[in-house]
Amino acid sequence: MDKFVIQGQRLLRGTLRVSGSKNTALPLMAAALLANGTTSIRNVPSLRDIKTFSYVLRISGAKVQHMPEDDRLEIDASAVDFPEAPYELVKKMRASFYMLGALLGRCGRARVSLPGGCAWGPRPVDLHLKGMEAFGATIELDGGYVIARTPRGGLPGGSFTMEPSSVGATVNLALAAVTARGVSRIENAAREPDVVEFCRTLQQMGAKIDGIGTTTLEIEGVDALEPVTVNNCPDRIELGTYMIAAALAGSREEPLRITGGNPAHLGEAFANAFKQTGTRVEANADGLLVHRPDTLQPVSITTGVYPGFPTDLQAQWTVLMTQADGPSSVRDTIYTDRFKHIPELNRMGVNARVEQNTVHIDGNQPVKAAQVMSTDLRASVSLVLAGLIAKGETHVLRVYHLDRGYESLERKLSDAGAQVRREAYDEFAAPDPQEV
C-alpha cells in the first residue's frame, strides 16, 4: 500500500489547479452507453474511480479509451450487448450502480450487483429500485444482484418522489427514463451542479428534459440518443478543499491562487461560511486568490442538500475550525455517522468530540504529527490538511482512498510549497523492535 509522508508547517504558495469533476464524469460515462456511437468526454481526471468504471463499461461491451495526457475519455457504445455489472467491480465504488439505469435504458434489462464504496454510513439503494418500479420496471433481488427488466417496448414512465433527495438516485432514474416510451417525473430531484451538467449533456444527446436545476424533472422518452463531445465541469469539492487549505496553510504575505474551479458550484452556504471565517477571496480571469486571515473566526455549519453546505466538505471544515479563534461545531444532516476522521484527528492532538450527528471542536489548537489511517475519501484529505499544519512528520496511511477522488494530490501540494511524498509500505509488517 501507499502512504503520504508530510513535513508539516510548510506554507502554501503559488498555484493549485482544480481537475475535472469525478462526480460528474461518472454519470457522463454512464450516459454514453445510451448512444450508439462514440462519445468523447473532455476534462476527465486520472483517478481510480474513473479506471474502475471504465472496466465496468467494458464488461457491457463498450470500448473505452482513456487519454490522460489530454484529460480525455472516449466511449464507443456501438457494441453494448451484455447488460451486467459484476460484483468484483461494483463492490469497489457505489457509482457503478449507475449501470442499472444505463443498461435498463439501453438494453431493456440489467443485472447489476449491489454496490460497495466508502466504508461509512447507511446509503441504501431503495430509492433507485422504488423509482425504477414507479417508472414501470420489474425488480428482483437474487444473490446480491439486482435484476431489472422493462416491459416489451420500454418503460411506460411514471412519477416518483424521492425522500430524501439523492444525487445517485436522480442520475439513475434519469438514465432509465430518457429512452422510456412515456413521460417520467422525478419529484424532489437533486439540484447539485453534477446533476445539472449531467442532464444538460443528456439534452445535448437528444433527451427531452424539463426542469433542469429545479426539484422537479420531467422527462419525455425518446427512441435513442446520439453520441456527443462534451466538456466535464471542474470538481467543486476539490476547489473547496483547496480553499480550506489556503485558509489553513497559505502564506499571509501573498494569496494562494486556485485555477480551473467554478466557485458558483460550491453553493451559497459554503461561500457565506467561508467569508465569515475572515478569509478573503478575490475572483479574476485567472481563478481565485485566497488570502489567509490573520485571525480565523469560528463558524459552525450544518450540511444540507445543494445549495446547502456540502457534506463532502465537512471533514475538511472540521480541520479548519481547529485553528479558529474559539469553539465551533459541524453538524451533518446528510450522513449522520460520517465522522471516522475524528478519532484520527484526536491522535494528532485535536480536541473534537462527536455527539450523535455533530462534532464539537475546540479552537486555537496546536496539531501534532502522528501516524493516522485513512478510512474514506474525504476523511483522508482532512488528515492531509491536518498534516500540512502539524508540527513534525505525519504519515497518512491507505491513501488509495485519496486516489479515488483527488488527482495527483501530492504533486499539486508539493508544487505549491508543501512537503508531501508518496511511499509504499507494508501494512502487515512486524514493527521494528527499536521503534516500539
Could you explain how this protein is built, in words?
This protein has 436 residues and is α/β, with parallel strands linked by helices. The chain folds into two domains: 2-19 and 234-435, Enolpyruvate transferase domain (UDP-n-acetylglucosamine1-carboxyvinyl-transferase, Chain, Alpha-beta prism); 22-231, Enolpyruvate transferase domain (UDP-n-acetylglucosamine1-carboxyvinyl-transferase, Chain), CATH 3.65.10. Helices cover 30% and strands 23% of the residues. It has 14 helices and 24 strands. The chain has helices at residues 22-32, 48-59, 87-90, 99-107, 126-134, 167-177, 193-204, 236-249, 268-276, 314-321, 341-347, 377-389, 400-403, 409-415, and strands spanning 2-7, 15-17, 38-42, 63-67, 72-76, 84-85, 109-113, 138-142, 145-149, 159-161, 183-187, 208-210, 216-220, 229-231, 256-259, 280-284, 287-291, 301-302, 328-331, 352-355, 358-361, 371-373, 393-397, 419-424. A four-stranded mixed beta sheet has the order 22-23-1-24. The protein has a four-stranded mixed beta sheet with strand order 2-15-17-16. Strands 4-5-3-14 form a four-stranded mixed beta sheet, with helices on one face. Strand 20 and strand 21 form a beta hairpin. The two termini are 21 Å apart. The model is unreliable at 117-123 (pLDDT under 50).
